[in-house]
Write the structure tokens for this entry.
Amino acid sequence: MVLVGAFVGALLLLGLSSFTTLPFSSGPLGGVTPPERIDPFEAAQAGDCLNWDRADLADIGKVECSASHLFEVSGVVDISSEYGPQAPFPDATTWQTINADHCASESLKYLSNKLDPFGKYTVGPLNPGEKRWAAGKRTLRCGLQVAAPSGRLLPAYGSARTQDQSDVHDPGVCLGIQDNSIGDPVSCEEPHTFEIIGVVDLGAGNTRFPTEDEQESLMTERCDAIANEYSGGKVIKERGLLVTWDYRAQESWDAGSKLANCKVGALPNGTLLTAWTGSVHNPDAPPLAPSNPPQTSAVQQAEATGAPMHSEAPASESSAPSSPAPSSSTPPSSKENEEEGG
């Protein structure tokens, strides 16, 4: 069994991909009940959250959605009318079609038609594997997950139905570089594009969608203050770095996404992102504490959220190219789960 597909956004904003690596989770937080072992193809229902630690997914089980999890079931679909007993096992392109035709609508319904097209959640089906498919299994579990730019799954916390869907990270998270795009979270000692220094709630005191100019004014003030507190001095300018931030689009606001990151990055080299190493966090400050629930998403953002770089630098120097859509490939299969299927 493997996870396949990633549906980024709503019906008209598809960005589908297959996961090319299987996730390695750090497991439930301390004191959390271990996963309840279930057969997700027979028992999982909408609202169930699933987690696993093993690369072959052999230990997949049901957990409380408040705990760390990698998949939240958004619906159960029967595709037997389109893919009969003699239908070949779907390739990557066919899985994308199944995802768009079935899981997209199920997930939109699950979220009361509020899915942020630029947010942290992606949509995909649980792949039953070739053995189950050959046995005629055509009932699929669709679900929501948080995927990094590489396709690796990241832990989610809380039900997607109640979470702000903004694609934000906790302060102290550094984002790597991948083909001149923002990459997965990495150690700040490794080359990275940005270091997250804070989260701003654009909805605080705002009942209507703030224009880009209004967001610019608010984020300039808030991010400068956050940067001074985070760094404890002039280290940002001394290192030739810039305080930057993200915008939120109208579509995101309408879906309830109202959080935006303040971050620090290096001045781009023309249209090329510049990687840097180290952290600007004040070494004398108390250790950073993650939010509750932690913000650990790393989905590649679409251009509508704003260019990755915003600062007081000239426009030609303060923007970077939007991230390309994830590439599609055939996902790896889980040998153990294939052998258990029947």
Observations:
- The longest strand covers residues 139-147.
